[in-house]
Amino acid sequence: MRQIWITETGGPNVLKMQETADPIPRNGEVRIRVEAIGVSFIDVLCRKGVYPGMPATPLVPGFEIAGTIDQVSQGVGDLKEGEQVFALTQFGGYSDVVCVPHKQVFRRLDWMPVEEAAAMPVNYLLAYQMLVVMGSLRAGDAVLIHQADRGVGLAALDVATILGADTFGTAPLTRHELLRRRGLAHVVDMTKEDFERVFRGERDGRGMQIILDSLGGVYWPKNYRLLMPAGRLINYGLNSMSGAAKRSRRQWLRGLIMLPYYTPLKLMRDNKGVLGVDLNQLWSAPELQQRWMQQLVDWYDEVLFRPLIDKTFPLAEAAAAHQYLLDRPGLGKVLLIP
Q1: Of 314, 320, 242, 247, which is closest to residue 15 (Cα–Cα)?
Q2: 12 with 320: CB under 8 angstroms?
Q3: How many domains are contained in the chain?
Q4: Are residues 202 and 323 in the same domain?
Q5: Helix, strand, coil content of the chain in percent (nearest 5)
Q6: Is the pTM for the entire model greater than 0.85?
Q7: Is 62 a member of any domain?
Q8: Beta-carbon neighbour count of residue 30 at 10 Å?
Q9: What would the pLDDT profile of 113-158 be if each residue is shown by its tens digit?
Q10: How many whole angstroms separate alpha carbon 313 and alpha carbon 320?
């Protein structure tokens, strides 16, 4: 098999192709011949060495793949060879063959393109967890999605639109037309306008029921202020603190010092909630992933959404895919094709 390894932390050039024998699935695993691989900012953070809980380098990145099962081990009773599937991988996804625990594997619909299947696991499961499970989103709720033009943001916009939310978002001005076509009702470029002031004005002084924050750092206090009573601030990223090509201790220390603290008494007084989400910490609860993905597949089957694919790269050009993601973030999913 062919794999892309992070040989050391750094820029895209640290991604190197290596070849080795095909793996043998262990008890409870299936082996998948991979046809498409999702590229996410989690992979970029791993490459930089700033993703919490990542293994030591060298390592194979990648959390989502789609393909066809070609071998099934003992302990797997619900999947068989030849089935078309997509899956979550706990690292190791940048490969043309992977072995995955069967509980992290999802069946593809017959009419689901492999590219769209590979674009679903990370972004759409995160969006569903934040909005439906932890956010308790209801029709008519005001939802603010930061970086709405990026992968998780686009997935969250799809989920919020399906559930009838009043959607707000931040994104560069060049992305506003695309986002409006996908259903975003209100959008600002936060480099040109104060999103807190603009959106509070559009809400006649009221705040948001739910805010999804991928930025972290100095944006948390603004988001917290923008919550209405019973509002929920859901944090799933620290993109404002991870811009350097390599780990910067000074950058991270400065960001951590500026993080606000929300004590139980303060939350009680304000009637607000602050939540955190990290899909990488849910490997011990695959039954939740299965339940959430089933609802997403049902919505896909009803043609309520389709993942937006931006560009595909050959597996050997993983470094170019990472550079593309940095140069032109957003606008849809970037994929690797073995």
Answers
A1: 320
A2: yes
A3: 2
A4: no
A5: 35, 25, 40
A6: yes
A7: yes
A8: 25
A9: 999 999 999 999 999 999 999 999 999 999 999 999 999 999 999 9
A10: 8
